[in-house]
Give the backbone structure.
Amino acid sequence: MKVALSVRGLTKSYGNVTVLNDVSIDFYAGHLHALLGANGAGKSTLCKIISGLVSASAGQMSLGGGDYQPGSKQDAEASGVQIVQQELNLIETLSVAENLRLASLPNRWGVLRMSELHRSAREILDRFGLPDVDTHTIVGSLGVGKQQMVEIAAALARDARVLILDEPTAALSGSESEELFTHLTRMREQGVAIIYISHRLEEVQQLSDEVSVLRDGQLVTTEPIANINREKMVAWMSSEEEADDDSSQPAASFVSHRRDEVGLSVQGISCGMVNNVSFDVRRGERLGIAGLVGSGRTELLRAIFGADVADSGHVLLAGGEAVRFTHPSQAVEAGFAMVTEDRKQNGLLLTQPIRANTSLAALATKFSAKGWIRQTAEAESASAIHASLETRCQSLEQLVGTLSGGNQQKVAVAKWLTRGAEVYLFDEPSRGIDVAARGKLYELFEELAKQGKTIVIVSSDLEELFETCDAIAVMSAGRMVTKYERNDFSEDAILEASFAGQESQLTTALSDDKWQNEEAKP
Amino acid sequence: MNRLQGFLKQLAPHLGLVAVLLVLVAIFSTLSNNFFQMSTVISIANQVPDLTFLVVGMTLVLIIGGIDLSVGSLLAVSSAVLGVLMVNYEWSIWAALPIAVLVASIGGGVNGAISIGFGIPSFIVTLGMLEIARGATKVVTDSKAIYIGSRIEWFGQPLPGAFVSPAFMFAIATVVLGQLFLTRTVWGRYCIAIGTNAEAVRMSGIRSAPLCIAIFAISGMMCGLAGLAQTSRLSTADPNAAIGIELAAIAACVIGGTSLMGGRGNVIRSFIGVLIIQVLQTGLAQVGVSDASKQIITGVVIVVAVLIDALRTRWSRS
Amino acid sequence: MLTAIITGPGPQRDLTLSGQVSKSLNNESLPMVQSACRSKTTTIQRVVCVAAVLALMVTGCTSSNSTSQSKDEGNEKPRVALIMKSLANEFFSTMAKGAEAHQAEHSDQYELVVNGIKDERDVSRQVALVEEMVASGVDAIVIAPADSKVLVPALRRAINAGVVVVNIDNRLDADVLQQENIAVPFVGPDNLAGAKAVGDYLAANRKGDKVAILEGIRTSFNAQQRLKGFEAAMKEANMEIVSSQSADWEMSRANTVASSMLSEHPEISAILAANDSMALGAIAAVKSAGRAGEVQIVGFDNITAIRQAIEEGKVLATADQHGDQLAVFGIEAALEQLGDSSDSVASIEDVETPVDLITSETLSNE
């Protein structure tokens, strides 16, 4: 076996906080090496050092036998080390083609050669298996999942000796993930060393050759996959106490708290691609919504919440009043809360402290005395809620942007728990979150259900919905096609239902010129 | 001991800025025999109110992610209204002042309503208001300076035995109120949140539009008060008053660490920015350096002040 | 003392700061700070306290030596502050250079501080300059006011503070001076007479009867005087003023205004500009209107650029009010008054400085 990249004694400290401590790993050419670890375990830091985004405080790296010290991401890319980060690095206002070729835009004396640009971009996308994405499309108008695929395609298009993927499947649907895995297999055959971060353990089991587990900045172990099973992985990742905790197995202990009264009734909502969706959720019920990325699940939640104004339809509140919200403030007033999919863009104030983020939605209702902020009450409330959520932070004054993904999500959730609501809408709540934080979140769902709250959970992770929900509704191409009760849960059935709407979408799409062009191509 | 530490910790972020100010004072004190004395302090205290009022409003506007280029013109409008009412119509200052401040506030409110209501960048809207209000000033005053005299002069002159003018005390009170508004009220918190991530604020169920419009109106109101301060200092309503002052106000805010991208700012620090600019102006005038050097030095100090602060922040973070 | 302020009722009392600061603090002013800071402190209170302490440090340590300093100065050479308008304007920078040259020759007699403002409209800054100069303890102020009215109250305060004030270049408004109950000697040319001489010369060499006037900033006394001089000359010669607008003393404004005048009134045969900068702007406007040589232009001030234009025949005449000497005349008047211990009102007299007509003939005679 040939070592492609070797790191020795890598350490990274910020002030007196050490986030990565003396880590040494060999990555083999042609192998897929999975990195596992809870939030803040140091996985992302390690990858950032390897890809030249941050520099190590101590330690050496060698690439293909030679000394390797990338000064910047450009350096690393030139040496053949490519990274696809969890946060998308695409420029939303440019087209797909321009993003794909951004580092080397085809030009003649500075003038863009548009035909060459789109031809080469088309080639990259086709090679990657995205024939349905038009290279002229503005990236911002694509869904998050599609954007991620474009970004991965861009990285794969560059010459890669080492490819780092940080949670690539978090925003991808099942079929998109399969697509990605095919490519990874092919790259592996070509001798590329792949470093793969994921919280989906079955993916790791299915794909990887070796697994390294990090905990609190230290390397716990590196093992070939043959020596590992799921239980071992979880045990290594969690500290001893957490390993005893059976929160990682809540499925075994599912208790329904569903009551008789209806908590939320959605009636004929249409908004953009969301097409006449109706459903009821009872109090104490946890309703999951499954579907492919782009099936309109986020759009549905946004329409219910008033973030987008629905074209038609309305929401029946518990009191029987029919409303169509035109601004989230009305929804919040009526007892709704929505934890958004994209935390950074529309959920959190990254450059503000945890305390300010946590109290934001409840500031006027709970912490105000004639407009003055009751600072002590604010701090105490934030302190209590983060203690119960086990948010890992130095203090409540730490800026949210400096937290790991899972802890950021806890802050986003804490904001709504502080405000208090009757109906909770969660959009991809565990995206980019480690096992422990996920377990915490599932406990919270149950606690809210016990209190008789109404809960809607949108997730691309079927396993998650299986574990946490009373019922799962499936959306496909903007319609809600079916709903399964807990005893009827079946992965096959739900996947089938997810694709059910696709055919009808084609017929409606034929009226749309852009799609028509795409169809005309073989 | 803990209290001392806590206090020093709170003070620490401002030390860079205060150091710049003290260094300037030290430099001018060595260069000129006549700088480090009471009369200079009084003279500086006498001159800062106009810019101080503007900077309180400007800081808030910058924090919500806007900008107000019309402050100089709105100042002139309020000054003109004050002058015309007090001289041509012989109103008392107490009758004329509310009208003058109201006119400027409405100007600011219009800025906000158009910019927020129609989603037009405030840069453009207030640039328009800069011209409109200046034109209106010339209409109101018939392009002539209106001499008011002692009926208004007392407000801008040191009180007997108190060293500082009512305008200065009023300005300081406004700075303190502005800082309390920003750090201690729900609306101040919302302002910071809006400037940081307006969409997250919306998705938290908060209506930001009325607040943002109010902030622009407050900026207008501050222009009205600045108009009073300047008119009383000059004893005259000058139609050409405060041309270009918006850049000084923005510079003071930026020196004070206010982000032009929104979400970050501090009224007291902006006020220190005003002091830095004023000490520089007074000191250079007393030393009597050439006009060209004055401009170069002023520019250098603005950049260096911001630079020192940025470096200090970076240094304390690592 | 100060330790208590910072730490509150803590045991920590041995900070080295306290000794130094309390020495420099003025004794009477201390109880105030003490009481303000003793109470339970919030952040804001702390900030205010620190500001108060800083202010007292500054004021405290200076109030003692400021008096002695100004006494020292008084026994030495007098300090004269020259406050100009925009030094970007050649007329004023020439004036300032003339003053500096004069001071260099007479460095044993007085000290000079020269300051200007960034443009003619920055009146507020000029008022601030007056206050700053008084604050720095100058003995005399020689000022070219950017506005005839706005500067008067500030100058009154300067006079009340015992500073000798001399007005040059642009005469202060008589009404306001009266209302403020002060007299300020004016040292400068008779702008009206100068403008009239220029206007008369134009009338004698005219090519037509319709003329336009480019005025200065209307609020300024000079602008008014020059306008009156032009108007008087035109009236005497029976010439008609078809348009008279302000171009704010500026070249580019003048260019715009003159261009629109020429298209509005094509019959114009001459443009009278109240200063040379505006005359230069008018030359360009006439040229771009395709009427070079047909429209006569006169200016005022005799700046360098205009002399060439006169030699080339683009400008007919200008007036030289000996700008380089104007400030010197003012300084001499101020020094004279400082030396005059009688301090009587009778010593406050206006001084008229000469104005000469400049034409291509006078230039070739030089």
